Amino acid sequence: MLRYMGxxxxxxxxYGCWPRRLPAGATERRTFxxxxxxxxxxxxxxxxxxxxxxxxxxxxxxxxxxxxxxxxAVEYVRRVxxxxxxxxxxxxxxxxxxxxxxxxxxTAGGLLGHxxxxxxxxxxxGRGRIPWGEIATALKEIDYDGPVVMEPFLKPGGELxxxxxxxxxxxxxxxxxxxxxxxxxxxxxxLRAA
Length: 194
Ligand SMILES: [Mn+2]
Description:
Elements: H1 2-5, E1 9-12, H2 30-50, E2 53-57, H3 70-80, E3 85-90, H4 91-97, H5 101-108, E4 112-117, H6 132-141, E5 148-150, H7 158-164, H8 176-193
Parallel strand pairs: 1-2, 2-3, 3-4, 4-5
Helix pairs in contact: 2-3, 3-5, 5-6, 6-8
Bound molecules: manganese (II) ion.
Manganese (II) ion (MN) binds next to loops.
């Protein structure tokens, strides 16, 4: 399907279910991670044949258990061992899990294939406490040239609002089109300044 659409790749929690906690009765994740890696090895054969990329997204431990840090994602990708498997980091999740934004991006290094940007409460960039200068510098240091994609979640309701746990209307009083324009300019300015 990706090849048919002319897509560059697929990213997200494509290595397991979401949102996900350990199955009832399980106390550690190792067997599930091993199982995911074995499955991914099979999947990557088709991904390589199609010449597309798969990006495994690192998310916080309230949403998944397979990998919560860039270092864990690097280990996962190395174990799968495919040149078409990369890492997707997300500033919202990094804020919860990583000791350092800078170090996490350096750790992913050349394996970073996609980057999601959003504030600590999932507002669009430029309205919160994420250290955008530090992130832009780190992306520059690893010569990152992949997509940088905003992923705000502002509206409660619906299937997505429920799954993401959006209970407040963060879009109140905000025109979404001008907000998108503002955040795009903000993130471009930060990347350019680095
Ligand atoms: Mn994301």
